[in-house]
Amino acid sequence: MTGAVIQAVHVPWQEAVIERIRRQTTSVSSFFLRPQNWRSFQAGQHLDVRLTAQDGYVAQRSYSVASAPGLEGLYELVVERLEGGEVSPFLHDVAKVGDTIEIRGPFGGHFAWNPEDGGPLLLIGGGSGIAPLMSILRHRAAVGTEILAVLLNAARTWDDVIFREELIELDAADANFTLLLSQSRDAAWRPQDAGRRIDLPLLKATLARLGAAPRLTFVCGSDRFVEAVTGHLLDLGLIPETIRTERFGG
């Protein structure tokens, strides 16, 4: 944590224009930001977003970048509207295309992936935790790697699956990528999916679909989600040093 704070001190805040807003689900939207000064990033990293009210009150949150590193000039942030939140309601209810907000970053090295890191890759996301995993998958597709990858993505219902159509298209087009969906409040819409929460048997079956021990596993979601998933993965024999986690409160 200390290293991250020191790193942040030396990265200035800057304005970024909201160039596009895309609705993902009823409560989630993608915000495409064009900063004044572009900074390259690694798949999996995040940005800090800061809002300052007229009375001087400041609210700050971190959001993972969902776009691939090669999409120079734009950062795509996935934001879920949270009741009682300080930043997400403003972005969803007030912010519009052409507005500017303050950003800083990108930050994060532990949860980042580069092609030279290799695979196979096991990616597990819960809700908006799909954002950094999407950056990894898009980067993997852009560089044309044949690295095996499996994404197990959890959502409440079929309609809550963020990036659903893009992921299904990637699953169909890439023989080395497998998409598995876990829906806690909905029946499975595809034969390979599950109509329940992610549990140990589902993770065991997911590892079998990968066909080999993952070189790296990335898990992103709420605190409770990450704790439960990583605990099961350790029970299944994965080496702790190969598991990378990113979490948010809730």
Secondary structure: elements and pairs:
Layout: H1 2-9, E1 14-23, E2 28-35, E3 46-52, E4 58-64, E5 75-80, H2 88-93, E6 100-107, E7 121-126, H3 130-142, E8 149-155, H4 164-173, E9 177-183, H5 200-210, E10 216-222, H6 223-235, E11 243-248
Parallel strand pairs: 7-8, 7-10, 8-9, 10-11
Antiparallel strand pairs: 1-2, 1-6, 2-5, 3-4, 3-6
CATH class category label of the largest domain: Alpha Beta
Question: Mind telling me the C-alpha Rg?
Answer: 18 Å
Helix content: 10-25%
End-to-end Cα distance: 20 Å
If you consult CATH, what is the topology of the largest domain? Answer: Rossmann fold
Return the structural class: alpha/beta
Level-2 CATH architecture of the largest domain: 3-Layer(aba) Sandwich
Strand content: 25-35%
Shape: globular
Q: Average pLDDT, to the nearest integer? A: 92
* Order of SSEs: HEEEEEHEEHEHEHEHE
Number of domains: 2
